[in-house]
Amino acid sequence: MRVVICDDHHLLVQALATALGDVGITVEAAVATPEDGVRAVAMLNPDVLLIDVNFPSGSGLDAARQVIAKHPGTKVVMLTGGDSPEPLRDALEIGVAGYIRKVQRIEGVVSALTQVAAGETVIDAQLLSRARSGHGAAPQRTAIDDLTPQEERVLQSLVEGCSTRDIGQRLNVTHSTVRTHVQSIFVKMGVHSRLQAVALLTREGLIDRMDDIHHDTG
User: Which pTM value belongs to this model?
Assistant: First the structure.
């Protein structure tokens, strides 16, 4: 795996680079600004961009958005030092593959990168729970509010009992893309299987909404 690290905290970057190197992950570049992060991805085409959410100048989210749009072969994992769920909602909206806290052990960051490189989505569970609940804000969020339109279509197909092959043919995407969407759906909904997802949709009264998605997409 080849990684670009973008963070202005030099001690953290050094620790991460050492830990990643110890497990055979190559750090292609370590940069300190979002702009340099985008440029490094364009030049090096890494497997993963690991980028901070907040910088003294510039936005990690803006950089992530650019990378996801222009370099789909590079997955984006965001690091946060805060507890606010708001940046997580924005990150989920643009399609990051990971969103993790800096307070966890270095080994946890390494594990998250390994999972993301394998096609999984890794989101901090506590922040995800707060984002879904709205953290006291109104209106109440539902289990599928953080899904992208494509993930909603995949979920509808899951509810209908479609296989990975069926979903790929229906949406004209590859099997690996379907699996990535399914993993992301499960992480965002806080479930571990199709059965749990359907049960959660039923409890929250969202089955009718899924039917609406089916009718809208034909």
Answer: 0.64
